[in-house]
Design brief:
331 residues, 9-stranded mixed β-sheet, 9 helices, 31% helix
Length: 331
């Protein structure tokens, strides 16, 4: 009896926390990390719809572009889908795993404007998860550049709670080459951490309608773990979460450098940020920047962002005053 009631309780609590999730990314639907994340979220009892770009769309930020043909005009980078195949579709054996030849932000549009209403009776989505990205997306410069985060803020625009996840992996690997059950594999560790933080959010949500406050999302960055950690450095396999902020005096701003030998420009981060990236207008002022968390040991940064990009009242008023009598009251 005792066993039965414990089992019933366990089943009930699992059922209560079984959520509907849209999962996307910018490395493409066939990336190892998104497939590991799909597997772990599904194993945790959630109903997951993986809806992601056909192929690598890193660095597309919030760009909203999509296929203008109904067939693919080229193979994807892994030759998984080929020229002439449909511009969108799902895995043959799983109608919850979809690709669309589009940017990450447009995949969010595909999920909510077409796929869910057309094929899944408008199932109510509790959370949008983006990632885990193959590469870090730290601080405000990456906030606008990253397709992983672009998908996330596009989901937040629509009123969904959404979380972006990025890892310290750099290889753009194909799940058919690299997905495995090795508990030490970075993709699998990151996927387990996604389940850990989303489970906590759902538990805290309780009976509330929303997971996160309206207009708010989270940006999560995982440090190097297990095989990615440099020899001689501290081992890391379970990086705990540290709350952080997107801005900071020492965040890396994208920059350029001319290579005089080749005559072409190369990417060159301005590593020390600027006094502008160090401004403290919004948020909790004494939090560390994301890079200072993730790049200094076995810690995962978690920042809250909002899609209210308007300048705060004082700065908006200063800008307004500069425009003076050029401004009129609209009748
Ligand atoms: C990187 O990804 C490619 C494509 O999936 C794969 O063939 C290769 O084995 C990967 N390399 C490493 C070091 O994981
Ligand atoms: C500049 O370009 C040359 C020629 O392509 C290359 O060999 C060299 O590594 C580059 N220098 C730097 C600092 O990247
Ligand atoms: C970067 O900032 C640190 C801390 O303020 C300072 O010590 C260092 O000199 C700066 N480096 C550069 C290249 O400006």
């Amino acid at each position: 009896m005792k066993f039965l009631s414990a089992l019933t309780t366990a089943l009930l609590s699992t059922a209560a926390l079984a959520k509907n999730i849209v999962l996307t990314n910018d490395d493409g639907w066939a990336s190892t990390e998104i497939r590991a994340t799909y597997r772990e979220l599904t194993n945790a009892g959630h109903n997951v719809y993986l809806v992601a770009p056909l192929e690598q769309r890193s660095g597309f930020g919030g760009t909203f572009t999509f296929s203008y043909t109904d067939k693919l005009l080229h193979d994807d980078q892994f030759h998984f889908k080929k020229e002439g195949d449909a511009a969108w579709g799902h895995e043959e054996n799983d109608d919850h795993i979809w690709y669309f030849n589009a940017t990450p932000a447009a995949c969010v549009g595909f999920a909510f404007d077409y796929l869910l209403p057309t094929h899944f009776a408008d199932v109510k989505i509790d959370l949008v998860v983006s990632g885990v990205n193959q590469g870090l997306n730290l601080d405000i410069p990456m906030f606008t550049i990253s397709g992983t985060i672009g998908a996330t803020y596009n989901a937040v625009y629509r009123g969904y709670s959404a979380v972006a996840f990025s890892g310290s992996t750099s290889n753009n690997s194909f799940y058919q080459d690299s997905l495995n059950d090795d508990s030490n594999a970075p993709a699998n560790i990151y996927a387990k951490k996604v389940v850990e933080i989303t489970s906590k959010l759902f538990e805290s949500q309780g009976d509330n309608e929303r997971v996160l406050p309206l207009g708010t999302g989270l940006n999560v960055n995982f440090p190097k773990v297990t095989t990615l950690v440099k020899e001689g450095s501290e081992e890391c396999s379970d990086p705990q979460f540290v709350f952080s902020r997107l801005t900071g005096e020492h965040v890396a701003i994208p920059g350029l450098k001319l290579n005089e030998t080749s005559g072409v420009f190369e990417f060159s981060n301005l590593k020390n940020g600027s006094i502008a990236t160090g401004v403290k207008y919004n948020g909790i002022f004494d939090l560390p920047s994301e890079n200072s968390v993730t790049e200094n040991g076995c810690w995962t940064s978690v920042s809250a962002f909002s899609v209210d990009y308007s300048a705060p009242e004082q700065e908006a008023n200063e800008a307004k005053a500069l425009l003076g009598d050029l401004l009129v009251q609209r009748s």
